[in-house]
Amino acid sequence: LFVSGDLAAGGEIEADPQQSHYLAHVLRLGEGAELLLFNGRDGEWSATVSAIRKKAVRLCVGGLQRPQPAAAGLIYCFAPLKRERLDYLVQKAVEMGAGVLQPVVTQHTQVPKPGLDRLRANVIEAAEQCGVLAVPDLRETVRLERLLSDWESGRRLIFCDEDAATNNPMAALGAIAERKLALLVGPEGGFSDEERHMLRALPFVTAIPLGPRILRADTAAVAALAVIQTTIGD
Ligand code: SAM
């Protein structure tokens, strides 16, 4: 269960109303039930239910079971999609170990102003479901031009380009010397010719293909994250 506050062995905390309902009425936990807590900062803690009150479940914090792993360094830059597909895309990015989620507005982006609170809740839910302790950081939405003009030196941007010059993503990724990486996947409508031209001209960009077919943006995200994970690692 994700808790936003500090955790300390022997401490007592109160689950928020939504979580209390989930623990008491969905999972039907009773006093003494054991569970695992994480706050996205110091790792995974054991805990037991110490009291089931009308509106809140109180938890007694045990010990640190698993220290917080270093957050993966990969910045996943994505054009926000419509609701369900965006939920899926964010969940897969969390599962696949993205360290930072960066919404990017491009010329054909469908949802230029995604609800970040909802997205943040999805990120935490995905982390709870797949046991990712290092909850990725969700950044404010930026326009593509701004993202590129403020680019962090020493970080390589891997750009999913269905017209990439190479047809071997592994070879293209294998040639990357930088350890700090970012990934950019376009919107359902794709990048404009102007955007592609701009991206291909940048010295810190590596364009990779993801096979001969045009993938949906959320499919491309999973495929690209898998290729990066298997070729380069975290
Ligand atoms: N440009 C596509 C078209 O012609 O309809 C639509 C874009 S595709 C649905 C969404 C994004 O996924 C693309 O901008 C690209 O970043 C990525 N993508 C999809 N298929 C790909 C492929 N075969 N190779 C590399 N990237 C791909």
Overview of the molecule:
Specifically methylates the N3 position of the uracil ring of uridine 1498 (m3U1498) in 16S rRNA. Acts on the fully assembled 30S ribosomal subunit. It holds the Pfam family PUA_4. One of its GO terms (biological process) is methylation. GO terms for molecular function: methyltransferase activity. The chain has about 230 residues and is α/β, with parallel strands linked by helices. The chain has 7 helices and 11 strands. Strands 5, 6, 7, 8, 9, 10 and 11 form a 7-stranded parallel sheet that branches. Strands 1-4-3-2 form a 4-stranded antiparallel sheet, with helices on one face. Strand 9, helix 5 (about 170-175) and strand 10 form a beta-alpha-beta unit. It is elongated, with a radius of gyration of 20 Å. The two termini are about 25 Å apart.
